[in-house]
Protein: Branched-chain amino acid ABC transporter permease
Organism: Dactylosporangium sucinum
Amino acid sequence: MRATIQKLRQLPASLQGLLLTAVALLVLLASGPQSYNGYVIQLICVYAVAALGLNITTGFAGALSLGQGAAFALGAYVTAVLAGTYEWPFWLALLLGAVSGLVAGAATGFPAGRLGVIGLAMISLGLVLVVNDMLIQFRGVTGGMFGISGIDARLWFKSDPVDSLWVVPAAIAVVTGLCFWLHSRYRLSRLGQATVAVRDEPIGASALGVSGYLTKVAAFAAGSAFAALGGGLFAYLSAYISPDAFSPNLSILFLVMVVLGGSGSRLGPLAGALILVLVPLQLDEYPHVNTIVYGLLLIVLMRLRPRGLFSRSAAPAPKALQHVTDAPAVPVPARESGEPVLTAHDVKRSFGGVYALNGVSFTVHRGEIVGLIGPNGSGKTTMLNVVCGLYPPTSGRVVLQDTDLSGLSPEAIARRGVARTFQTPKTFPGMSIEEHLALAAPAGEPDPELLAACRQAVRRLLELGGLDPADRAAMTRESRAMSHGQLRFLEAATAISGCPRVLLLDEPAAGLSASEIEGFERVVADVAAAGVAVVVVEHHLDMIGRLVDRVVVLDLGTVLWEGPPAELHDVDSVRAAYMGVR
Ligand SMILES: Nc1ncnc2c1ncn2[C@@H]1O[C@H](COP(=O)(O)OP(=O)(O)OP(=O)(O)O)[C@@H](O)[C@H]1O
């Protein structure tokens, strides 16, 4: 069973979608499209479509939505009004139903996308209650409590309803397969990778140029479109709809389908829909205990599989690593410092009136490695945070070549070529190594020499972490299982794979062994030799002595001394402030 699932997982998404449609059609053929079993199979498909949509919003984007039932109801009513009242063709009624969900999802996502998990849950729950009430109140359109009947499938405007019993079942089977394919494509796309990155580590994602807000709005819109399409299919399946079919419980049911199946996984929503439609129907034969057994079953399943039945969320990122594995070894040029790349001009940054940076100025040149050192709390990390846009400066400016970075968002600064690592690696647990590198891949056409050097550096960093870039299985595994050292190398490899102009490294040696530090130093030196300006914040003074061209010593938010590392130990003020020697 496990081997079969493994093989099915490895099929391309398009084939998986086709297979799903074929299986649904075969089962429908065996049971008869008008039979009770046929109805149940179609209901599973319809709910699966809505659950796949919710998996985009909640699973991929991590936005807890309790409002999937509202989009489902909206799609059902838009489709039912167009099909029943205006006698539109079924394909167009379904399409417009889905579009209504897309628009409603985007309209919800724009204000809701900036809220935290609880705020989002509250807004979406409010939406379900509002929509449910509107279905009753706007009876001129919705039929109020009586609902809408006569929802017949037509091929063209005002034509007679189609005779065939197969139109609706076939449409349901095809749309389910199509939605599964679209859902998988979404996860595999750059947008999907960005969405998961924001879910797992929003600050790390912003450092790669990803806008968290837009990924959430897109996920809301896509998730609602799926739900509305499911709702439209439900209207045709039932031929009659009323508000009773869309109680707030429906949204909870969709959520449980996603969580039970495995939030964020690609097969989970299908499994969730299958189980949560079939199990209650089987239990209906035992009316006194059915709810108790159903509840206990859910508890036991979640206890045994806390991340759901299908927990794997990482997806292959085709060709992401080919350029790394196939890259020929490149000779490393001698390192020379060139023109200024990054300049801090009198940067101040205060927190509640206390200045963490109080007028810091320094310059980093092309190909140069600058060590930013100083005692704990002297402002080193704050300086990196100001450069990469996480903290806007209180006053002063940071200039990247000719661009003033002050006031730009972290995403905008990252897109201009500033990459960084963090004291604690901000990698994305639900994404594979391949996906990390694919997400960070440069958007434009970088200088070929820089590109070759960066690819070589990425390969060597992965190897330093004991990861073989040619080992496809390892490269497609979720990074959540990786050790601290491996994550450090992965984070650095990710930052470098974007071919940055400036590389900021925050305590890269922390937690690494002596040999790992040495290997890391060689990679950083080679990247600098290819023209990248590097700033290293580090307490490991031996590493600083070996690696950097120039040291900038911070103390209490000001530059205490600047010069070559060899002279560091001879400067009294540095010894006093930094090493505690008075
Ligand atoms: N978000 C924040 N809110 C309030 N104070 C902050 C914030 N970030 C930094 N600080 C303060 O700014 C000062 C400088 O902190 P910073 O982390 O930049 O020092 P550091 O030199 O990197 O220290 P370490 O070597 O321990 O990492 C500290 O006093 C710190 O408490």
